[in-house]
């Protein structure tokens, strides 16, 4: 489904990523983790063809992303950025815009409208459907942007810190929805997260980025105090409770 092979990326002379290789299958939920500035967003943007790697390739279904047209790519990959600007349009219109790659005529068809209704329902946004984007909260906007990516019906859904502005209940709800989508719709979901414990709860596997490279990747077996301490430069304990693992930072207040 998704293959990243020996990817290298630099902003002019400043190298951000080097030798990044991994493969992910449809239906999986993958978390990309690492410190601020480690290169996580850059990696996601290279996969979404928003940045051009200096070396290496990104393949989706065996085909180099460079050989997809913009419209073909939009039907395969949806990208939810970390920051976004809003226009004076309603929640309904914003989500409907996610259907753009599927539009065949001048007006949206009944399937487009059905998908929007479904997204409003799944993301619990019905009550906000006809509010303007600049009249809703940051967390509500976050859900709208994810709903817009969902109606795009991508095979690969890339999300850069999608739970950033959300309260704890909505963080869990959004991650639950994304996990359910990965399973039911067989979408590959690749998410950048900073909350390690939520990443552990919801992900099938993890990619830790450090010093431009993949420091570790794999399932829950790689979530060890040694790996986390080295990646983040913070002492932690990894504890087991009711068969679940938890990362606990060892911090002194002063
Ligand atoms: N447009 C740009 N031009 C030059 N350098 C950039 C640009 N965008 C990002 N960088 C640098 O590239 C490095 C990687 O940035 P990136 O945004 O990928 O990190 P990140 O892991 O996503 O960080 P965060 O967790 O803070 O979002 C950082 O050092 C950043 O300052």
From TrEMBL:
What molecular function does GO assign, one term?
ATP binding
Keywords (A to Z) from UniProt: ATP-binding, Nucleotide-binding, Transport
Location of the ABC transporter domain: 2-236
Keyword Cell membrane assigned: no
* CDD domains in UniProt: ABC_Iron-Siderophores_B12_Hemin
Q: Which PROSITE patterns does the protein's record reference?
A: ABC_TRANSPORTER_1 (PS00211), ABC_TRANSPORTER_2 (PS50893)
* InterPro entries (alphabetical): AAA+_ATPase, ABC_transporter-like_ATP-bd, ABC_transporter-like_CS, Metal_Ion_Import_ABC, P-loop_NTPase
> Which family would the database say this protein is a member of?
Belongs to the ABC transporter superfamily.
The UniProt entry, under PANTHER family, shows: METAL TRANSPORT SYSTEM ATP-BINDING PROTEIN TM_0124-RELATED, MOLYBDATE IMPORT ATP-BINDING PROTEIN MOLC
What is the name of this protein?
Iron complex transport system ATP-binding protein
Organism field: Caldicellulosiruptor bescii
């Amino acid at each position: 489904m998704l293959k990243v092979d020996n990817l290298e990326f630099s902003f002019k002379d400043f190298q951000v990523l080097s030798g990044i290789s991994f493969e992910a299958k449809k239906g999986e939920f993958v978390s990309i983790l690492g410190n601020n500035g480690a290169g996580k967003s850059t990696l996601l943007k290279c996969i979404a063809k928003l940045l051009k790697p200096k070396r290496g390739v990104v393949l989706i279904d065996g085909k180099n992303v460079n050989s997809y047209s913009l419209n073909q790519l939009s039907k395969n990959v949806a990208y939810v950025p970390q920051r976004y600007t809003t226009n004076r349009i309603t929640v309904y219109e914003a989500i409907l815009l996610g259907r753009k790659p599927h539009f065949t005529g001048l007006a949206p068809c009944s399937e487009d409208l059905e998908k929007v209704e479904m997204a409003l329902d799944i993301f619990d946004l019905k009550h906000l459907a006809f509010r303007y984007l600049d009249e809703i909260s940051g967390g509500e906007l976050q859900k709208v942007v994810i709903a817009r990516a969902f109606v795009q019906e991508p095979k690969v859904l890339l999300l850069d810190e999608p739970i950033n502005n959300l309260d704890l209940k909505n963080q869990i709800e959004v991650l639950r929805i994304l996990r359910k989508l990965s399973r039911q719709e067989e979408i590959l979901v690749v998410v950048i997260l900073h909350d390690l414990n939520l990443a552990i709860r919801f992900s099938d596997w993890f990619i830790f980025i450090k010093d431009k490279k993949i420091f570790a990747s794999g399932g829950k077996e790689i979530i060890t105090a040694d790996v986390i301490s080295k990646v983040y430069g913070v002492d932690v304990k990894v504890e087991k409770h009711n068969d679940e693992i938890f990362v606990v930072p060892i911090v002194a207040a002063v």
